[in-house]
Amino acid sequence: MSEAVRFSKEGNIGIITINNPPVNALSQAVRAGIRTGLEKGIADNDIAAMIILCEGRTFIAGADIREFGKPPLEPYLPDVCKFIEDSPKPVIAAIHGTALGGGLEIPLSCHFRIATAAAKLGLPEVKLGLLPGAGGTQRLPRLAGVHAALEMITSGVPVNAARAKDMGILDAIIEGDLKAEALIFAKKVINEKLPVRKVSERQAKADSPSVFDDFAKANARKFRGAIAPFKCIDAIRIATELPFAEGMKRERAIFLELQASDQSRALRHVFFSEREVVRIPGLPDDQPTREIRSVGVLGAGTMGGGIAMCFVNAGIPVVLLEVKQEMLEKGLAVIRKNYAGTVAKGKLKQEVMDKRMSLIKPTLSYNDLKDADLVIEAVFEDMAVKKEVFGKLDTICRPGTILASNTSYLNIDEIAATTKRPQDVMGMHFFSPANVMRLLENVRGAKTSPEVYATAMKVGRTIGKVPVLVGVCDGFVGNRMLAKRTRECGFMLEEGALPWQIDKAIYNFGFPMGPYAMGDMAGLDIGWRNRKAKFDSLTPREKACNIIDKICEMGRFGQKTGSGFYQYDEKRNATPDPMIEELITRHSQEVGITRRNITDQEIIERAIYSMINEGAKILEEGIAARPLDIDVVWLNGYGFPAYLGGPMFYADTVGLKKVYDAILKYRDLVGTEYWTPSPLIERLAGEGKGFYSK
Questions:
Q1: pLDDT at residue 694 in the model
Q2: If we measure between CA atoms, which residue out of 32, 37, 11 comes closest to residue 77?
């Protein structure tokens, strides 16, 4: 027997116990151990039934990620599942914690399934661009029905024990000690001579001939661009059309097809990158950090209120500071309204909302921040204002307090220089809405101590964010790259494209929205204000590319004013506006540019490759330590499609030589000022390498 799996006997019941910390992953040793345990139980004439259960905090929570990307090792999971199902003696799965992926396919192969009330069951493979490859698409529809299987497998979202029982996955939900209750259940199976029930021998019946097409159409927008959900639908359809053995062969073929796809490679890259990004190159895993027991937030506006919610959601008290009582009350009202909306939807209990609101201490006095362990300012994006705020904090906050700015592009070193503790100052750039968006761009200054930025990374995880550590430059990683896309899209408007054409091309690429629809939603006045703040640093062409100035000067700020790049009805539905088309056409004439046809391919190349080129410069400068840091920023803060893996991974998928050649093409078209290839791209392309294969 494997050390990860042991076999024991309780009377006439065999118990196969898995102990493979931390999550009992289905490693080769576990798979082999399960099979060996079954062989022992089958061979022992005294054994009448067997139980599979796990020690620790969870049942099998999925595959062993250490085996990802490596040649598979015997015994293969489909074979183990078949061996379980073919057992002449009943096998009972006793589930607690989570049973995910192969960790659910094992119970689906058992003859009976019981679980604790808190257990969750799911098949999340679609999130890695895959499908369940050990019979999940063939057994689940036979057990739970076609529609339930479609929902569960294409979403990858686990269901709770109560829902699993309603679906027919579980035979019982148990209270009390899992092992003791599993033994009672097993004795019942033996005493009542309950038949061994093979899920594979059941029939999967489609509710109607059109159920699969109808489901695909109903979810087309949700699945947009992704291959795996549609392949999952195909596999479940096969379960209704073919005998089980044939269905298993087809499932395996589809699994291998998906496994070899660029999308699955990209999604597996995302999976590992989001786990690796929290590890800071050059720092040990046991780097000392500071304890954060209380937080101060300056500013109760949209950002400050959202940041405060992040901390109280994690049970950390917040002192919320504003300069005027009415602004403070308005901010608290918005926070209360946000929570109340969640309560109304049944996603939050009223007592939880009340507890969170009680953790917020509103104040008009800086002195109330004196005992905070971390203070985050979210005031107006103006350097003079930031310096004034940090000067006050430096005199009031006790030694050791971390002082953080929520700035999206201002120089952290310049802010830190206004204090006597630059080692304790850094950027913590939350994305709007802060209580929803997952990304936290942590910005270390030249003098920020490792203890401080390691603490910020730990805090990010504590409040449920995906924290990424970056260095100081204008716009840091995300907004610095976004600025290049914004520039190219503006130039393409001048050269012949229209806002809705650019938006459609970017949307079809996989982003949730195009830049002009997004600008209208956020408020064009925000981008206009940023443009005016940076106007002196712009090139002559960038200064002359003033389409947004003209639109904003007309009072068109987007959805909130009923018009921006688009015209909006009372329900905020957008339609292209002929007046904007005329304005853009007239602008092209005024700046002396002859309009031409711009293809969607050119739009994508200029929008995306300009960002990739800037990302390479960010790597060269050490602003980001690794390509994966850039990818995680764009995946979690800007809606880059996960199935493309992030801009740097996407560049490797396209091929850096192809990207490099396109940069040279646009250098000739637009100018060397905007399209000079980074030395890193030039070198890697010349060597036939990519960002991830240096």
A1: 62
A2: 32
105 is catalytic: yes
pLDDT of residue 380: 87
Element (H, E) at 405: strand 402-405
3, 39, 55, 105: the active-site residue: 105
Q: Enumerate residues 6+ apart whose C-beta is below 8 A from 642.
A: 266, 267, 270, 635
Output the DSSP codes for 199-256: GGGS----SSTTHHHHHHHHTTTTTTT-SHHHHHHHHHHHHHHS-HHHHHHHHHHHHH
Q: What is the pLDDT of residues 571-604, one digit of tens each?
A: 999 999 999 999 999 999 999 999 999 999 999 9
Please list the alpha-helical segments (H only) found in 228-371.
228-241, 244-259, 262-276, 302-313, 325-344, 350-358
Summarised one tens digit per residue, pLDDT across range 253-281 is 999 999 999 999 999 999 999 999 999 99
Q: What is the pLDDT of residues 19-69, one digit of tens each?
A: 999 999 999 999 999 999 999 999 999 999 999 999 999 999 998 877 877
**C-alpha dist (Å) from residue 440 to 22, 310, 468, 469, 642:** 27, 11, 6, 9, 17
DSSP string of 35-58? HHHHHHHHH-TT--EEEEEE-TT-
Superfamily of domain 5-260: 2-enoyl-CoA Hydratase; Chain A, domain 1 (3.90.226.10)
* Alpha carbon distance 219, 224 (integer Å): 8
> For the segment 417-469, what is each residue's pLDDT rounded down to a tens digit?
999 999 999 999 999 899 999 999 999 999 999 999 999 999 999 999 999 99
Residues 645 and 653: their CA atoms lie apart, in Å, by: 9
In whole angstroms, give the CA distance from residue 127 to residue 266.
11
pLDDT at 69: 74
pTM of the model: 0.93
Q: What is the mean pLDDT of the chain?
A: 95
Task: Extract the runs of DSSP E, i.e. beta strands, from 23-131.
Answer: 49-54, 91-95, 98-100, 112-116, 120-122
* Distance from chain centroid for Cα 667: 34
Cα 358 to Cα 40: distance, rounded to the nearest angstrom: 57
pLDDT > 80? residue 15:
yes
Reading the block at residue 275, the tokens are: 């786990």
One of 125, 377, 542, 605 is an active-site residue; which one?
125
Q: Which residues pair with 361 in a beta bridge?
A: 319
Task: List Cα–Cα distances, 214 to 126, 147, 203, 210, 232, in angstroms.
Answer: 19, 11, 21, 6, 14
Q: Tell me the torsion sign for CA atoms 366, 369, 375, 376.
A: negative
Helix (H) or strand (E) holding 14: strand 13-18
Q: Assess if CATH 3.40.50.720 describes domain 295-470.
A: yes
CATH number, domain 478-590, options 3.30.230.70, 1.10.1040.50, 3.90.226.10, 3.30.70.1130: 1.10.1040.50
